[in-house]
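PT: before anyone asks, these are the final sequences, not the draft ones from last week. 648 residues across everything. Please model them as a single complex and drop the result in this thread when it's through.
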Amino acid sequence: MAIAKAERLMNLALCLLGTRRPLSKRELRESIEAYLEAGSDDSFNRMFERDKDDLRELGLVIETVENLDGETGYLARRDSNRLPPITLDAEEAAALGLAAKVWQQARLAGAASGALQKLRAAGLPEDVDPYGAHGALEPRIPVHEAAFEPLMLACRDRRPVVFDYRKANAAQPGQRHVEPWALECWRGHWYLAGWDRDRGAERVFRLSRITGKVRSRSGRFTVPVPDVVTVRETVASWAGETADRSARIRLRSDAGYPLRAKATTVRELGDGWDELEIPYGHGLDAWLVEFGPDVVVLEPAELRADVVDRLRAVAKG
Amino acid sequence: MAGKPVRPVNAIDQTRRMLSLVTYLRERPGARIEDVARAFGITEDELVSDLDVLPMCGTSFRGGDLLDIDTDGERIWWHNPAALGADAAEPLRLAADEATALLVAARAVATLPGLRESDRQALLRATAKVETAAGEAAGASSRLSVTFESEGGVFADVDRAIAERRRLWIRYYSPARDEVTEREIDPIRLVSVGHTYVEAWCRRSEARRTFRLDRVAEIRILDEPSAPPEVELRDLSEGLVQPSAEDPEVVVEVGPGGRWVAEYYPHDSADELPDGGLRITLRTPDPASLRRLALRLGRDGRIVEPAALAESARQAAREALAAYDGVEAAG
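LR: through. Structure below.
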């Protein structure tokens, strides 16, 4: 039976951590059963390279040293792999325990519990019910977008990417070459900020509009990454949250609670209608139309025309 | 679908867990399986599968220094802890992904309005300590961020009602009907998936309901105790709205400008149309609630089925237009 990969990785990790002098590939092959069974040199070499990458992925610092005979040796020095001393009290431990549970993305969920396990091994206090202290709160970070993981890795490693992106109103997706800076989740959706090479400008992309695969490009970033990357402000302006004008509408008395909640003034007209002053930003026309015959726009004329235009389109069917 | 989600076995996750286990078990001879599984946040079955692998591991399978770890089904014994040098079993530094996953989540949770102040302080202290311990590995965590949205005051009241097991009175806005209703609810738990929701037993409908906190117009904690019936908690990882197969079907056709509908509404299918639009089939217990959608879409899309829903949207638009004629005539 093939030897499980976890067993092979564990043995390689223990060999590299346990040695005080660099071990050659030959020595490692003779010490680890799975490598002896690997068959040809080629398949062993491939397996060994992959395994080293996997161990580095989980945080192991593996050094490559050439010995006096010119042979390459490997070791994981204790001082570069040891967790610095960290002391957390029971409250802090419980708070981290809650935080470690919030990811709904397999890779990050695995990494978060891995982090907690390392801290546990370092003496992180345990309590009987780690989440009891936090009552009924269950925050979750949703990740439904397939583009998330490749973009997360590209942001981490500062690698340029290329992907097909469908703009909100575009019939066909277009290819975008991007230097990815940061990902941000807002209102349950993920956005990417980065340098758009084709447009020569900073852009924000919504991950759910990326179609097909995200592919890495060789080479480095050509533009310095800013210290502060603002995603939320850009998205908020798309969502019409940066209103700079105001509009006057009539609203049926028993309707439109969210409009009332946003209104700066509400005046009862007495005939079953109220008059409201509300902030007017991008997207207000589409929102007002949702209320159908319960809303009448008074001014500005431009908004009134947009709403009438939309209503005519619906009335035609 | 309740209970722990089944995790696929991932060799990297298992290896990192076993490396931590070795350190942990070395300090705790005779540790109980139950306790170790809980400390590591894994099932007892997962722990037992690790314990099956560990005896095959060591610094050399030839030298005879494999880890002699076994279990009697209740406790775990390690008979040769000296098989690993004293310093070969020290806790390992955090990897970049581990630091990122933990720090980004901790910072996000700390932004939750209504989080108890003592908990927030504990979380901020812990975050600072983890940042220091992670060193360089913490750097990549600045490339991800998450903000939870919730209404601070409402959140705090719901959280308190759950802790004190008390009933709540709310005025709640339902966008489907564009109406605000009063109801008494027995809160069960708070859930944050993008927006923050309270799952509760609604005394008005005598059924389990989910309320979005930013739609709560008014809230009061009542003196009556909360007594929700025992309900099985659903796994909400697939989203809060889980239409059932018996719900009526609605077909919406949108142009390129209406493709967002497929992002916001869970649907059975979304087929590409030649003009760059989509034909979306979805299910909802209350098709009338989609009249708002039809109105919002304007020229970017229309309801195809059911016909009655399409007609009610057209009717609403005609009525609304009539009001403009009236105003214009009067002006």
